[in-house]
Structure formats: C-alpha cells, structure tokens
Amino acid sequence: MECRRSAKRYKETIFQLFSVILTLIKRNQSRPHKISGEDDTSKIESILYYIECNIHDPDALNTENMANQFYLSQNYIGSYFKRNVGTTLSDYIGEYRYKLIEQRLRYSQDSINEIAMDFGFFDASHLNKFFKKYSGESPTDYRMQLSGANATN
Prior knowledge:
Helix content is 73%, strand content 0%. It is mainly α. Helix 1 runs antiparallel to helix 5.
C-alpha cells in the first residue's frame, strides 16, 4: 500500500516539474518588449504566473477578472499580452491548459470526468471538444494510443 502511494506521489511530482518546465519554455520563447518606460517584463511575468496558478479556474482567467487583477482595461489586456508574449491571451491559456491535460492523460490514471472537473469543464463532453480542437482526437483515443505504444515497447 505504501509503495503505491509513493509511486503516485512520484508521478505527481514529475507531472508538476514538467508543468513548470513547460511554463519556463513558453515564457522564454519570445522576449517581452519594453515600451513607454513601464516595467513590462515584470507585469508579463506576473500575468503568466497568475495564469499558471489559476489554470484550473476558468472564471479567474476571464478577461474582466484578469484586467482587474493587473489594473489594465478589459479592452487593452489582450493587445498588451500579445505585444509582449507574441500570442493571444486566449491562445496561450488554451495551449497551456491543453499541455497540462495531455500530461494528466499520459501520467495519471484519473478518469476523463475527474480531469474535466479539475480543469473547470462542465463535463467530459466539453473536455472532449476542447482536447479535439488541439490534438484532433478525443482524450480517450489519446490514452488508447499511449497504452498501445507502451505495450509495444
């Protein structure tokens, strides 16, 4: 029983470390531009950290809440983010969420429903639609492919 818990903690730790690595890679893909004397790098880092901390709470990541959190207008936060990161705010959040879900599917035994609830989806069908948008396949098919690949190794 203890060995099973240790293995689960080990996998969770690997998952968390991988998530941090993904975040660091994404942050360093494009260098933020400094404009009008503001410390844009610091603000962008704060926004990226906020996204990372709130990725499981879609309400916290809506434009209105994020704009209020960072004292930017709702109309400006999207263009500010794109100018400094090189991708739209919604694309960044979607891609980040997709990568985390992909890792959960790969490294956990959590059900699709559990993963859907953890990421703030109403149900598994919403997660399926979201995942298909990024990968072209359902989460179940993705897992089946992984188990087939592992069986041949």
